[in-house]
Specification:
Elements: H1 2-32, H2 34-61, E1 69-74, H3 81-90, E2 95-100, H4 103-111, E3 117-120, E4 127-130, H5 136-147, E5 158-161, H6 174-196, H7 202-227, H8 235-260, H9 265-277, H10 291-296, H11 301-314, H12 321-345
Parallel strand pairs: 1-2, 1-3, 4-5
Antiparallel strand pairs: 3-4
Length: 352
């Protein structure tokens, strides 16, 4: 009887051992079939993209903390030392206060977006001038800090908003959403062209990008300005800025499609969505971002577009040259990369 049990056990183990190689061979056979292999690739790309998004947005936007918020001090700090100490403590020493000669000069620097606030110590009651249009998140932090200044230190501070946001955009997010829409329009359309208009020549592909940028920028400008009245600025400038963002995203994704094919979504998504939008300063102003995002945001298309849109709407007479140069550099660089990649690999974004 024991021998029978041992024989049955050995037979079962043998069947299991024989079944395991067959299972492995079957799985390997499935993965060699194009449809199953492609399904695995798609799921791997999707998980990678979501992971990049979650990590980047949590790091950049999950814990906004003041970092060297530039602000001016008008008056004599020695006369009210408690105000400055209390305000700095309330912001976690996140202010970078520098003396200014007059309130008029401080207001001019705010209009030029060199500073985010001005602490005025002249008069009977200290005042804190903020500017929500330059970054509602920063203005909110400063207002909360001003309210925390105790009476014994000279508080509470009187808060004055020099550039309040309109009711149509109370959180100052319209420029961020418009930039995000232009970005998605740019690169998603390129992937759809590759999937549904395969075989386009490089010249035809570039013509599609130009048309997409012009029409897409026009539609987005119409929606945000005359239709929703969220961004009330010079219409030609809004159109040009949004068209440039569409072009930058489209050209970069086209270059990646030529270089790495179906994996192009990963660098495109990582640059424009996971990092670019998080670092743009649209959802959280640059002084509240971690150092890495605060630095790279200045040199990415998303940050340039958000800043240009914001300046066009709220600081019309004080546009900065840097974001225009950044956007132009990305468009030119992506175009050159696309042309070089297409020439060397002898393929186009739609045929790679």
């Amino acid at each position: 009887m024991p021998r029978t049990v041992e024989a049955d056990s050995a037979s079962t183990d043998g069947r299991r051992a024989a079944a395991e190689p067959r299972s492995r061979r079957r799985l390997a056979g499935l993965l060699t079939q194009p449809r199953y292999r492609n399904a695995v690739v798609v799921m791997a790309i999707a998980v990678t993209m979501v992971s990049m998004f979650a990590v980047s947005y949590t790091l950049a936007l999950g814990r906004p903390t003041p970092h060297d918020i530039p602000a001016a001090v008008v008056g004599h700090p020695a006369g009210r030392p408690g105000v400055i100490h209390a305000l700095e403590a309330a912001t976690g020493n996140g202010l970078r206060l520098t003396p200014d000669e007059s309130l008029a000069r401080a207001k001019a620097e705010i209009d030029e977006q060199r500073i985010y606030a001005a602490l005025v110590l002249t008069g009977s009651q200290p005042q804190l001038f903020v500017v929500s249009a330059a970054g509602t998140s920063v203005a909110r932090v400063l207002e909360q800090a001003a309210e925390a200044v105790p009476a014994r230190a000279g508080g509470p501070l009187r808060i004055v908003d020099l550039h309040p946001l309109p009711p149509t955009d109370p959180q100052g997010l319209a420029s961020f959403y418009a930039t995000l829409a232009a970005t998605i329009l740019g690169f998603v359309t390129m992937f759809q062209l590759r999937a549904n208009a395969e075989g386009l020549s490089l010249r035809a592909w570039l013509v599609c990008i130009v048309l997409l940028a012009l029409v897409g920028g026009l539609v987005l400008a119409l929606i945000t300005d005359p239709v929703l009245k969220a961004l009330r600025g010079p219409f030609p400038e809004l159109w040009a800025v949004l068209a440039a963002e569409v072009a930058a995203a489209a050209l970069f994704s086209s270059a990646m499609l030529t270089l790495v094919g179906r994996w192009a979504i990963i660098p495109t998504w990582g640059l424009f969505v996971a990092v670019g939008n998080a670092a743009s300063g649209g959802a959280v102003a640059p002084p509240l971002l971690p150092p890495f995002y605060r630095f790279v945001g200045r040199f990415l298309p998303n940050g340039a577009t958000v800043e240009t849109l914001r300046n066009a709407v709220y600081f019309t007479d004080h546009q900065h040259l840097e974001p225009f140069l950044v956007e132009a550099a990305w468009i030119a660089g992506a175009l050159v990369l696309l042309l070089i990649a297409a020439g060397r690999r002898r393929r186009t974004p739609g045929t790679g």
